[in-house]
Design a protein that fits this description.
membrane, Biofilm PGA synthesis N-glycosyltransferase PgaC, 54% helix, globular, single chain, Spore Coat Polysaccharide Biosynthesis Protein SpsA, Chain A, 449 residues, transferase, 8 strands, glycosyltransferase activity
Amino acid sequence: MKSPYNRPTGFPYRKGSFYLKVYTKFWLSHSVAFLWMCISIYLARHWLIDLSIIISLPLALLVIAGISYIPGYMNAFLVVSLIMDKQPVLKDENPNDAITLLIAAYNEEDKIYNTLHYIGKQDYSGPIQVILVNNGSTDQTVRIALKAKENFQLKMDILHEKIPGKFHALNQGLLHVKTPYLITLDADTLLHQSAIRYLVARVKSSPADVSAVAGSILVKNSRDNLWTKIQEWDYFLGIASIKRLQGLYQGTLVAQGAYSLYKTESIREINGWPDAIGEDIVLTWKLLEKRWKIYFEPLAVAFTEVPSSMTHFFRQRSRWARGMIEGLKQVKPWQQPQIYTKYLTGINLIMPYLDIIYTFCWLPGLVLAFFGYYWIVGPMTLLVLPLTLLSYSILYFYQTKYVFKPLNLRVRKNILGFILFILAYQMIMSPTSVFGYVQELFKFRRKWK
């Protein structure tokens, strides 16, 4: 996404005369989703009968529920929720609270200078303290960071953490944070010039029980190759839609370490980042367990570098899937105190089932369909597609009008990437996630990168 740096003026959200409570939105969305699923079950009755003749009724129900019923329910819930979502108006667009940026870095000599450069270009009026934690780098990361500190006149301290592991580096930095808010930032992530301002403005405009605000992550290297072009749409539509859904119900499930704001005392109360490959996932769920809420701010935009090779992507996303399982082990969905977070984290309990069904049933069924055998994949499976396109259309409109326009960003033309994202992306994502589940099941060695 192109990102010219002209300071946006005026907040895009408007107050409306009609307001639905979050509780009402939650149950209304479920009602519509349940109705959609009932219609799908009725329309798919012949499909169920035909498949049950081949593999038995219980197995047929298991397969079709994982391919059609449950995904259809979830997509319908997402669509209705997005239609009713309305971001609260900011009380103050220009806060000046002192904040700390916490960056864990391991061999980032080719990225860290640019990251610090964009920090120096922020339009935030409050004091910014940068803490860079060098986690055993063997390259010139520290030397280049010192050069950037001088060139951009940053208030920055460099710490050293010899024990490998991002959570070790973050916890080392946490010991030195003296401000009420801290922001974690990946060493390869670039901030839009108003990113910090909007993130702090959101937490300052939120109720006292909001402990974190997740920023919005977009792709900065989408022009590298076709694979990064596909991922651009995943961040712009897929991940953003899930973040908005979770933010609406006050339980964003991942205040991602790549770019999120936390209340410092909240992090200290749960003893910092946990020893986990998905340290940001587990940390977020522990915050939610404390009855704290976590919001999402779409205008607080940062640009990250996504994997440009299939191997790197496979490692990253399998690590994310493994992190989700770690989170489920440490904080059970039924332990969450709020009904919204019980539901949102509970969805993750069935994600392995859905990914396994997709990988070992839907993909082979797709091959069979090419040869005229519509036992598993057939016309009924296309019922999910209109909902998917509708949800992405709603979010595309929202992103372009209420996020990109006020931030002076422009959506690049990437039609081929969009088509492949819609048609083929899940074919890679589900098997990758299944591998991540297997890694966690058999306790494979964990890697930061």
